[in-house]
Design goal:
Layout (H helix, E strand, L loop, with lengths): L7 H4 L6 E2 L27 H16 L10 H14 L5 E8 L5 E9 L3 E11 L9 H20 L6 E8 L7 H7 L4 H6 E8 L7 E5 L4 H12 L4 H12 L7 H14 L4 E4 L17 E7 L2 E3 L2 E3 L16 H19 L2
Parallel strand pairs: 4-5, 4-6, 6-9, 7-8
Antiparallel strand pairs: 1-2, 2-3, 3-5, 7-9, 10-11
Helix pairs in contact: 2-4, 2-10, 7-8, 9-10
Length: 346
């Protein structure tokens, strides 16, 4: 997840970047696997398999100067690790190159799971790059590992969804939210209309997590205003922030995704928090207002000075496997399967 100060984080949007590769959405030669008739909802993802992936990402970082950042050997090795595993599934894989704001070449990885209806699709994404200060295991090898297990299980169980599913592994989220931005800005209006939802997966291994639900109707902004007033902040200081949040682009389909995630977590008797600011702090930013969006993020927030730390060891050298809770990974996996199945059947 992109590092920013508490208030700047809430309103910052990704800068415009140039795509240097080709971006395809509904055109490929992917092999259609023989379907078993099972649905996405019948998937059972396993945290132990995800943890195995996390250990491998940590080994990659340790072998490459302690990180997996965009344009580094660790970043390239991470991409190759993903590709090596995904190619075994039989699904078509595209590598889409782009240039970020620092003139560094990144590479998005896009996997197509063909559906019965190939004119509409669900897009799921997680960034696989880390910051240069650490290995980035919770942020965001955790989301990457979850999506790898999702793809591998879809292939293993030979599940053909009702609509196609595209799984994106974004590069350079930590540098300008660049990979998803480069991809989204080159989608045509017809391609955007074909996307039933974009679901973002980020930092899902956080221990003792607070579950943040992307606030589609921005009702949380009113609550934020009350809190800032109670803390004695003057209106001239907080009004620009809140005005920026209220003006964030939205889509008519956002609310249904928010409601479905609420239903899932409430069925687990878990407390949730509606939050609008996270929409601009990760790869959802690239899709706001263009397609329905949902964000699956597990936080354990704490302040360090005037900077909001989303989870322990956030963007530091200690963001390692031992910061990740397999129970959080399992919860996030179940939530993802639930939401993808919901989108696939609506």
């Amino acid at each position: 997840m992109k590092f920013q100060s508490k208030f700047a984080m809430a309103i910052a949007l990704a800068s415009s970047l140039t795509l240097t590769g080709c971006s395809l959405f509904a055109m490929s030669t992917a092999t259609t696997l023989v379907s078993t008739g099972m649905t996405v909802g019948s998937l059972t993802l396993q945290s132990n398999r995800m943890m195995n992936h996390l250990n491998q990402f940590q080994n990659i970082a340790e072998s490459h100067q302690g990180n997996r950042a965009t344009g580094t050997k660790g970043g390239e090795a991470s991409a190759q690790y993903i590709l090596d595993h995904i190619k075994k599934t039989g699904y078509e894989v595209q590598i889409i190159a782009f240039e970020n704001r620092d003139k560094v070449i990144g590479q998005n990885i896009l996997v197509e799971i063909k559906g019965k209806d190939q004119d509409h699709a669900t897009l799921i994404g997680a960034h696989y790059d880390s910051v240069k200060m650490g290995p980035g295991i919770n942020d965001n090898a955790s989301g990457t590992a979850l999506l790898m297990d999702f793809i591998e299980e879809m292939s293993s169980k030979k599940i053909q969804p009702e609509h196609s599913i595209y799984v994106a592994f974004w590069d350079s989220e930590e540098q300008g939210i660049a990979g998803s931005q480069a991809y989204a800005e080159h989608l045509t209006e017809q391609q955007l209309k074909a996307i039933k939802a974009y679901i973002n997966v980020d930092m899902v291994g956080t221990k003792d997590p607070e579950i943040l639900i992307a606030d589609a109707d921005k009702s949380s902004v009113d609550e934020m205003e009350k809190q800032l007033q109670q803390r004695g902040m003057s209106e001239q200081d907080y009004k620009p922030l809140l005005d920026g949040l209220r003006k964030l682009p939205s889509h008519t389909g956002d609310q249904a995704l928010e409601d479905e995630l609420k239903t899932f977590f409430k069925s687990k008797n878990l407390k949730i928090k509606e939050d609008v600011s996270t929409l601009t702090a990760s790869d959802t930013a690239a899709f706001l207002g263009k397609v329905p969006v949902a964000s699956l993020i597990l936080f354990h927030e704490q302040m360090k000075g005037d900077v909001l730390e989303f989870a322990p060891c956030y963007h530091t050298i200690c963001d390692r496997v031992d910061t990740v809770d397999p129970k959080s990974m399992q919860l996030a996996a179940e939530a993802l399967v639930h939401l993808v199945d919901y989108v696939d059947h609506h």
